[in-house]
Amino acid sequence: MEINISAIGILHTDHKTKDEAPIQGAFDPDAKGIVEIFPEFAEGLKDIELFSHIYLFYHFDRAEPGALIRHPFLDDTPHGIFATRHPCRPNGIGITVVRLVERNGNRLRVTGIDVLDGTPLLDIKPYVPRFDCHPEASEGWFAGKDSRRKPSGRE
Amino acid sequence: MEINISAIGILHTDHKTKDEAPIQGAFDPDAKGIVEIFPEFAEGLKDIELFSHIYLFYHFDRAEPGALIRHPFLDDTPHGIFATRHPCRPNGIGITVVRLVERNGNRLRVTGIDVLDGTPLLDIKPYVPRFDCHPEASEGWFAGKDSRRKPSGRE
């Protein structure tokens, strides 16, 4: 069964290439971006400014699904794609948590955004720490892995 | 531009109807479920068991997009759909953070799952507290809103 999804907006960032984009938004908390919601969906933003943090759901439009076991950017050991946040996934859906700075009509000014400029936006949801913050969660293979340049050939 | 997405598995839970399903997984942390990944994607689970918590991305297959401003389950004031977690969204993508208890081949035993039985699974990503936990985030209109029965006629 196919599920049809379409963009509700577009993400404007300073990350013009994959090499420039941080591996995770948490690695570049000052990275600025504009979330532009298409006018026909703007009404759905009512009260979004009550939230300091929001989830952005987006489409990895410059990545293709590929091998199910692969090297992520942060590790030199391969892992299953579902144990990574790599963009080349069976369904190319990404999420990032950003800080919402300001709303101007159908445009949201955000910081801590790690996605490529021009990325199609699929959804916005409020980040609610009571539901979404799990400080006791293990770090898995991410433990001790710090930000670095993306190794070449990892897509 | 349409983006084609298809299920990579199916979620088995005890929530047979919308009224039975908790409003958020955090409201029913003991709710058990099985994440079944279709065999052709099972290889992508390698090392998933290193993580205590995972994100499940799923399709709200029994909800239709609707009004952009609506009453959520937890509040009696209407909000924009993007300021809620309501299932009736322009793109029907849901996420939930669950605790991963055990992996048996292509089946994951999880707890804290709030989705309906039979829901199509779209993606799994590891939950990494360094990237995903923001205890300083505001609660917006969710502040002080506790679990309750879903009011009738909200869907």
Topology of this structure?
The structure is a homodimer of 155-residue chains.
Chain A: E1 2-6, E2 9-13, E3 32-37, E4 53-59, E5 69-70, E6 79-80, E7 93-104, E8 107-111, E9 119-126, H1 129-132
Antiparallel strand pairs in A: 2-3, 2-9, 3-8, 4-7, 4-9, 5-6, 7-8
Q: Mind describing the biggest β-sheet of chain A?
A: 6 strands, antiparallel, barrel
Structural class of chain A: mainly beta
Tally the beta strands of chain A. Answer: 9
CATH level-1 class of chain A: Mainly Beta
What's the shape of chain A? globular
Mean pLDDT of chain A: 90
Tell me the helix content of chain A: under 10%
Give unreliable regions of chain A as ranges: none
Question: What is the first-to-last residue Cα distance of chain A?
Answer: 28 Å
Tally of individual helices of chain A: 1
The total tally of domains of chain A equals: 1
Give the radius of gyration of chain A. 16 Å
The second-level CATH architecture of chain A is Beta Barrel
Index terms:
homodimer; 155 residues; mainly beta; Elongation Factor Tu (Ef-tu), domain 3; 6-stranded antiparallel beta barrel; two-stranded antiparallel ribbon; 1 helix; 3% helix; 34% strand
Describe the 3D structure.
The structure is a homodimer of 155-residue chains. The first copy, chain A, is mainly beta. Chain A has a single domain, classed as YaeB-like (Elongation Factor Tu (Ef-tu), domain 3), CATH 2.40.30.70. Chain A is 3% helix and 34% strand. Chain A contains 1 helix and 9 strands, in the order E-E-E-E-E-E-E-E-E-H. Chain A has one helix at residues 129-132; strands at 2-6, 9-13, 32-37, 53-59, 69-70, 79-80, 93-104, 107-111, 119-126. In chain A, the strands form 2 sheets. A 6-stranded antiparallel barrel of chain A has the order 2-3-8-7-4-9. A two-stranded antiparallel sheet of chain A has the order 5-6. The longest helix of chain A is centred in the C-terminal third of the chain and has 4 residues, at 129-132. Strand 1 (2-6) of chain A pairs antiparallel with strand 1 (2-6) of chain B.
